[in-house]
Amino acid sequence: MRNRFDTQLEQLNNELITFGGLCEQAIGSIVEALLDDNKEKAREAIALEKITDNKEVEIEGLCLKLLLQQQPVAKDLRLISAALKMITDLERIGDQAEDIGEIILRPEPMRRKNALHIVDMAEATAKMVSQSIDAFVRRDLELAHQVMEADDVVDDMFAQVKIDLVDLISQNPQNGEEAINILLIAKYFERIGDHAVNIAEWVEFSITGSHRRDDFQ
Questions:
Q1: C-alpha distances in Å from residue 187, one per residue of 122, 136, 148, 169, 183
Q2: R_g of the chain computed on alpha carbons
Q3: Which backbone phi and psi does 72 adopt, to 5 degrees?
Q4: What integer pLDDT is reported at residue 77 of this predicted model?
Q5: In this structure, what are the phi and psi dihedrals at residue 172, rounded to the nearest 5 degrees?
Q6: How far apart are CA 154 and CA 187, in angstroms?
Q7: How far is CA 98 from the centre of its chain?
Q8: H helices of the chain, where?
Q9: Looking at residue 175, what DSSP letter applies?
């Protein structure tokens, strides 16, 4: 019985790795779309959203099967519970990559010189997502903490984007529509960073049995 359970846990681990890879792929496509004004890459990110939705359902079913059929205890239960939380954040990362892709496809131009900090945010959040998944795979508590700390850097970038956009509009009020698109993209990246932090926190929970939000209750 335990051998079968271990096999299913390994399957869960592999499915989460695959899910994380899909999110990394979506963000990578978005970064390329921003750097090169590549509409096809934006479409790739949008297409991946449906795949991430399906992957969430698949992993949720596997987690429920493990809970109902195997009755895991202690460490195994924490791992499955963390996985159920993580897939929600991964699915939302896919959603937000899709949202950014749709903005990039809008007919209004978005000049790269006005979105330099957006590219910085994109690369920083892509790294956070990648590291949060690596932390889970390697059960690396230190790496999970690095992801949490990186959130402050992304927040600072978001603040800088808002300052840039005030200057952009003050230069010419006709830049307003472009500024709105840039602000929306920045907000989506900021939220992707938040989801990466959530994943890192659930990695910490799966390892230690403690969730830092409990410290504030």
A1: 11, 26, 18, 18, 6
A2: 19
A3: -70, 160
A4: 87
A5: -160, 115
A6: 10
A7: 12
A8: 2-36, 39-65, 74-104, 116-138, 141-171, 176-208
A9: G
Give the pLDDT band (50/70/90) at residue 120.
confident
The CATH code of the domain at 2-216 is 1.20.58.220
CB 83 within 8 A of CB 63: yes
Residue 37, by phi and psi: left (phi above 0), alpha (psi -120 to 50) or beta? left
Note the pTM of the prediction, 2 decimals: 0.90
CA-CA-CA-CA torsion sign (37, 94, 155, 106): positive
Q: What is the mean pLDDT of residues 44-55?
A: 94
Which among 172, 189, 165 has a CA at the least distance from the CA of 115?
165
Distance CA 25, CA 31 (A): 10
pLDDT for residue 178 is more than 80? yes
Query: Sorting pLDDT into bands at 50, 70 and 90, what band is 1?
Result: low
- Collapsing DSSP to helix, strand or coil, 209 comes out as coil
Residue 53 and residue 64: Cα distance in Å, rounded?
Answer: 17
Q: What is the pLDDT of residues 142-162, one digit of tens each?
A: 999 999 999 999 999 999 999
